[in-house]
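Troubleshooting: if your tokenizer reports a length mismatch, compare your output against this known-good record of 193 residues.
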Amino acid sequence: MLIAGVDEAGRGPWAGPVVAAAVILRGKVPTGLDDSKKLSAKRREALFHALQASDCLIGVGQASVAEIDQINILQATYLAMTRAVEALGEVPAHVLVDGNRLPKWRWPATAIIGGDGCEPAISAASIIAKVTRDRIMVELDTAHPGYGWATNQGYGVAAHADALNRLGATPHHRASFAPVRAVLQRLREETSG
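Known-good structure output:
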């Protein structure tokens, strides 16, 4: 029976896409899978490569900043999760999702609070989603220096807030998020006044 684990990365940041991964474990599974937040960046990278080199099925899905702003972060997360499961290439018999809520989709599914720390398939998905999104933010940091995205991944830390106020928002900032919306509003008032 094909059971997929699903998790996301990037619901809370002020910038960048939300990324989800779906993983069906099979064959020789890498040891040491855990919630990606509990692992060092080096260990996450090693497990990311080990998972990709294994017989596991991996699907990744994203929802863009435009989609986040249009349909809200929760619905965009569900969209990314749906795209991740669809990208598996196989139809899972059941899907295990980290958290307490499920997307409305066609696959039988169970939400598991803390699943990224106790269900290996969800742990694997957590690692794939986190490493994938972190890499995206490093690329965006190169294109838009000054916000510190290579290290803060777009989260609302003080340095990011300061840069947002000094440099303004980029197309990769989530305009529907209050701190970004406030900066955009201030800039509109300054240019119109």
